[in-house]
Amino acid sequence: MKLARGFTLIEVLVALVIVAIALGAGIKAAGALGNNAERLAQVSAAQWCAENLLTELRLNQQSQNQFPDIGESPFSCEQLGRSYVGTLKVSPTPNPNFRRIDAAVADDQGVPLLSLSTIMGKF
């Protein structure tokens, strides 16, 4: 008598389930990677906006002797074809010769992306 060789139906189904789970996990990981790349591009562009604004304040201070006034003001900028909005907040510090400046940047829908802070001194 000769024994039959091959896989049973149960073994084939278990192998298919394992392959399906592995492929599903791979697709989910690829999607997360794409979302992370998009988020990185948005945060990088938002950082450029905030850094440009803070650099502009420093240059104005050096060229025109303008020390930023205390308070909040909105700003907007465009980077990489996208619009960003933000809030510039100037706060006093214990030393009156310095001001704390916070630039909070959000996307055009108002989702916060980045907050950048610096200290600016009187010259």
Automatic annotation (TrEMBL):
Keyword Cell inner membrane in record: yes
Keyword set, alphabetical order: Cell inner membrane, Cell membrane, Membrane, Methylation, Transmembrane, Transmembrane helix
Family: Belongs to the GSP I family.
One Gene Ontology cellular component: type II protein secretion system complex
SUPFAM superfamilies assigned: Pili subunits
Superkingdom of the organism of origin: Bacteria
Subcellular location per the Swiss-Prot or TrEMBL entry: Cell inner membrane
Stated role: Component of the type II secretion system required for the energy-dependent secretion of extracellular factors such as proteases and toxins from the periplasm.
InterPro entries with a match to the protein in the record: N_methyl_site, Pilin-like, T2SS_GspI_C, T2SS_protein-GspI
Domain annotation Type II secretion system protein GspI C-terminal: ranges: 40-120
Transmembrane segments: none
GO biological process entries: protein secretion by the type II secretion system
Gene3D superfamilies named in the record: GSPII I/J protein-like (3.30.1300.30)
Record's keyword annotation contains Cell membrane: yes
Subunit and interaction comment: Type II secretion is composed of four main components: the outer membrane complex, the inner membrane complex, the cytoplasmic secretion ATPase and the periplasm-spanning pseudopilus.
Post-translational modification: Cleaved by prepilin peptidase.
Protein name per Swiss-Prot or TrEMBL: Type II secretion system protein I
Lipid bilayer topology: Single-pass membrane protein
